[in-house]
Design goal:
heterodimer; A: ABC transporter involved in vitamin B12 uptake, BtuC; globular; B: two-stranded antiparallel sheet; 13 helices; 2 strands
């Protein structure tokens, strides 16, 4: 019984929390991949940027991180649109691989701009240690984890409502399915692209803030979660936001569950290799089902 | 006189590093310039080459496996082989998909390579790395030891350049160009497109492995940070884009030019007061990133644009 609680406290709950953060990041990746047709390498840095915006807001105002979250999301979305205008728009008619190179360069530019402006020391969004909530005398949940999971689920519900209930969401899904057909039916593609950056950028910012709330603010944080985020988007199916949510949860759970001692007393995967779990899952899915769980697009 | 001597030593080290980057850049040129394959994990292949040479040539040590005392030339070959094998594995999974997937997979492979070198402490000494790597001709008196190593690197650059010039003009290179321009036509002509892509990807990775072997000897030290995406991957991309993709001369000159800029700007920022030295180091990365963007948007062909071989005389006469 003790082992079961250990499993839930130290592997399952952290896995869900991490997975919900990956899910938020993966929605943006899958939307830009589906609509603009390129893998955006700078997405991780948008997460980092969101976390730093939140840190500045909290330092200035002393607010709770969750109060800073919406403002930081808006700021990240604005920067995302700005980057698109300056660095991605000139390549709309060019082969999409040019966008991949541009975003690869953007990744280093955004990161160095962050390092230049905020420095490289670790920062945290909230200081002090919180007492975990104890359920059934054995299951311990930190209030932080509850807030992160709750915020992530709330944001995913909002994305779902936007995509399914609004005209803008329909246009986005139409363009992800077939850009030519979407253009023919009179959809304003530039408007759709702008909305994609707003949603993707805002969610990336949120993912960064939640990740920083769970751990700390650091300049390499976005790069470190870039691979699991891509893996989640591919696992869910490119262009499928719901797939990205499922994919994110699976990758997050897999990373945490892989270090559980399933066989014998030693962790199945040594914690040092945790970051490799997403890569292995991604290679597996590319080999056996490149379209992902939700039968997304393959290029 | 001492200052002049110091400057010449700096010049030699600049050229040596420039030469190592030229080998890397020629490798990327085969992958991207010839075959149109996006490799975002150059650092991974580079680090594999570096570790293979480091572990095979270094004297026995309690901290890592070693004591094989393999001949340097054989070690170069094995470094290339190891990098090529990993590229073959990654290529097997990703080459049938669009290049974005290859980009993601290579950045992931480089990360896994770094994790392995960092975590397998019994074999690699983990984050502390492998030191005291022998360097060819290091027993010669100063400055001849530096010059001798520079000559080795330059010979490798010359051989790689010459071989790739021939390959690009040979039927193999022409098929590569054709695949980039019009893949369905090449398929219709009965060429095995996947096979050609794989050859380009593996050959490029082998050159990256060789560059890693040189780097291990030049620094006499390797650690997992050798696969750093900034200095080992991003910088090489800037070199190739600025120099000119699909042009071997562009790859070599781009490498030397960008390395000179990078290294010279480090001297400037290093002399600033401490607080500014750290900050301007990041401004330097930002500016080199901006330079990449400017070239991509305004001069996508680079300084030396791709040159197509002339059609054979007979076909011109009949035309």
């Amino acid at each position: 019984m003790y082992a079961l609680y250990d499993f839930i406290n130290f592997h399952f709950i952290p896995g869900l929390v991490l997975g919900s953060i990956y899910a938020l990041g993966a929605i943006g990746v899958t939307l830009t991949f589906g609509i603009l047709r390129f893998a955006n390498f700078a997405h991780g840095e948008s997460m980092t940027l969101g976390a730093y915006f939140a840190w500045s807001i909290i330092t200035l105002t002393g607010w709770h991180p969750m109060a800073a979250l919406p403002i930081a999301m808006v700021l990240t979305a604005i920067v995302s649109i700005g980057i698109d205008r300056g660095f991605y728009k000139p390549f709309r008619a060019a082969p999409t691989i040019m966008l991949v190179i541009a975003s690869f360069g953007m990744m280093l530019m955004v990161r160095s701009a962050i390092q230049f402006s905020w420095g490289v020391q670790l920062k945290s969004l909230q200081s002090g240690i919180q007492q975990p909530l104890i359920l059934f005398d054995a299951i311990r949940i930190s209030p932080k984890h509850l807030i992160i999971f709750g915020a992530a689920v709330l944001l995913m519900v909002i994305v779902h409502l936007i995509l399914s209930r609004t005209k803008m969401g329909k246009a986005m899904r139409a363009m992800s399915d077939s850009p030519e057909l979407a253009k023919l039916t009179g959809i304003d593609t530039e408007q759709v692209i702008r909305n994609t950056w707003i949603i993707g950028g805002a969610l990336a910012g949120a993912a960064g803030i939640l990740l920083a709330y769970d751990t700390h603010v650091e300049t390499m944080m976005g790069f470190q979660v870039l691979l699991p985020t891509f893996a989640a988007a591919i696992l869910g199916g490119i262009g499928k936001p719901y797939g990205a949510m499922i994919g994110g949860l699976i990758i997050g759970l897999a990373e945490e569950l892989a270090t559980y001692p399933w066989i014998g007393d030693t962790p199945l995967v040594s914690p040092g290799y945790k970051a490799g779990v997403a890569f292995v899952i991604m290679i597996g899915i590319l080999l056996w089902r490149p379209s992902g769980i939700m039968r997304g697009r393959t290029f | 006189m001492d200052a002049l001597y110091g400057y010449s030593l700096y010049f030699i080290s600049l050229l040596t590093m420039g030469g190592i980057y030229a080998v890397l850049c020629l490798g990327l040129n085969v992958q991207w310039g010839f075959a149109g394959l996006f490799n975002a994990g150059i650092g991974g292949f580079f680090a594999i080459g570096a570790y293979v040479t480091a572990l095979l040539t270094t004297a026995p040590s309690a901290r890592h496996i070693g004591g094989f005392e393999i001949n340097t030339l054989v070690a170069y070959g094995l470094s290339m082989l190891a990098a090529g094998l990993v590229a073959w594995g990654v290529g097997k999974v990703c080459l049938r998909l669009r290049s974005d997937y290859l980009a993601i997979a290579t950045i992931g492979a480089a990360e896994v390579v770094r994790l392995i070198f960092k975590n397998e402490t019994d074999y690699t000494n983990g984050p502390r790395g492998v030191s005291a790597i022998p360097k060819p001709f290091e027993t010669l008196p100063e400055p001849w030891n530096h010059i001798a190593f520079l000559v080795i690197v330059l010979i490798a650059v010359a051989i790689a350049f010459w071989a790739l010039q021939i390959a690009q003009r040979a039927p193999w290179g022409r098929v590569m160009t054709a695949i980039r321009e019009n893949e369905p036509a090449v398929r219709a002509a009965g060429k095995d497109v996947e096979q050609f892509r794989m050859e380009g990807f593996v050959l490029g990775a082998m050159l990256m492995g060789l560059a890693g072997a040189f780097m291990a000897q030049y620094l006499k030290f390797v650690d997992p940070n050798l696969s750093d995406p900034l200095t080992a991957t991003f910088l090489v991309w800037v070199m190739l884009v600025v120099g000119g993709s699909a042009n071997n001369k562009g790859a070599v000159i781009g490498a030397v030019l960008i390395w000179t800029l990078w290294s010279a700007s480090e001297i400037v920022t290093g002399r600033l007061p401490d607080e500014w030295a750290v900050r301007t180091a990041y401004a330097r990365i930002f500016l080199i990133g901006l330079m990449l963007q400017v070239f991509l948007q305004k001069y996508p062909l680079g300084i030396f644009p791709e040159q197509r071989p002339r059609p054979p005389r007979s076909s011109r006469e009949s035309a």
